[in-house]
Amino acid sequence: MIIVRSPLRISIAGGGTDIPSYYKINESYFISAAINKYVYVSITDPFEKGIYLKYSKSEKVQNVNLIKHKIIKEVLKKEKKINKIEITTLTDIPARTGLGSSGSFTTCLIKSIYSYNKKFIDKLDLAELACDIEINKLKHPSGKQDQYISAYGGISEFKINKKGVVNPKSLNLKEEIIEKLEDNLLLYFTGFSRNSSKILNEQNKKTNLNNKKMIENLDFVKSLAFEIKKTLLKGDLKNFGYLMHEHWKYKISRSKNMSNKVINNYYNYAIKNGAIGGKIVGAGGGGFLLFYTESPSKLRNALKKTNLKEVRFKFDFEGVKQIL
Description:
Oligomer: single chain
Low-confidence stretches: none
Distance between the termini: 7 Å
Shape: globular
Structural class: alpha+beta
Largest sheet: 8 strands, mixed
Helix content: 40-55%
Radius of gyration: 20 Å
Number of helices: 11
Mean pLDDT: 92
Number of strands: 12
């Protein structure tokens, strides 16, 4: 049996600039952090011939082309003569909640197939192959953030040039800064699962049409990411919280589908009860809210009075990893 895990992520800054429609014009810069919540893929050799798949549904087929799960189908199509395999997937947190589960799953599945076939793949090639499958083959309106942060792990910065070449680099934060971030960043599920495609398709359409307002918004979000990098390296985390609040304001102005009245009320309530800043994690429309506070107990106690569900986390510094 082969078991591989891949971390989910929280987007820190610059999200949305990692989509091809933008970085082909103005290049991308974003900061992302892997967390210790995972997607798992196990592979075993079944007794009988056939392709056995167990995810939120079950499939048993004799031919790769008959697979209904699009990502699994595309990954297995790259392998020759697979007619006897059993793949099971599990996740700590459900999909469609803004933590990059699709990109994490794709890197996890590719790594597990390579391990099963006793082949090596490095982090860069793994991330790029996952991007190729999701963006080029399946035409998902997604960027490169999720695949890269799941492959590399850590709290990392990424630059993408106009040709789509990604330059990943760890921020190498001091241990005391990392510990303070883990203590003071609080992650809450809004109760809304969503499909990010609607929001991302809208962004893609406007960017491809050179919509001035959209491009200026993404330009500003990218500039904020550089400022956030400086504050993190200095350990000026209170200012980091304020910059998160600025990021929130610009992000929700990008689309009317980015937030809603209920999420806005949660956000404003958190600000009144000790949060310095916060954001919707991922494309928006639901999923998770992330808050920075220097009074975590106060904020945590206040949010217990809401319907929000906290998910406690630490950062993952290993990225995709074979664990069995």
